[in-house]
Amino acid sequence: MAYAYIPIAKQLNIPCYILFISTALMLLVCAIFSRGRVSADGDGTIDIPGLCAILVTSLPSPLCDLNHQFIKKFVENGRILHEVDEILVPMFRALEPEVLVVLNDGRAAPELPPMVAIGPQRRFDQQKSPSSPPSPSPPPLVAWLDQQPIKSVL
């Protein structure tokens, strides 16, 4: 609900940051949708300036229905993104390096502020204090990930 509080924070000269909980590419799609720059061409793709074309069928289904409540909120929130100071995205730079470049150099969405990849975050209830003793074994998901071949899991 960024569209509700950002204008107020800006009036009060409070720095504004958004934590965009998705991929950098979805942030770019949000910016494109919010500016009305979506037009699928004859082969069912949407052009992402400076990057690629994506298949319309690869988008979440609510984005394909212009009357769906989700897309209305998606567009409203996207329209306010250009007013924030920075957009934080929880991701590794290595996963979407090309997207980060076109987002931050202005080719794809020149109206957006800088986007900062902040790396995956742990759930708050899983974080330990510095004085906590180390756990005897890693959580099940970490143990499973450790058993997978290198570069086989994103």
From TrEMBL:
Alphabetical list of InterPro entries matching this protein: UDP-glycosyltransf_plant (IPR050481)
Which domain of life does the protein's organism represent?
Eukaryota
Q: Cell cycle as a keyword?
A: no
Q: Which UniProt keywords apply?
A: Glycosyltransferase, Membrane, Transferase, Transmembrane, Transmembrane helix
Membrane-spanning parts: 12-33
Bias regions of kind Pro residues — which residues? Answer: 131-141
MF terms from GO for this chain are:
UDP-glucosyltransferase activity
UniProt family annotation: Belongs to the UDP-glycosyltransferase family.
Name of the protein this chain belongs to: Sugar phosphate/phosphate translocator
Q: What organism is the protein native to?
A: Iris pallida (Sweet iris)
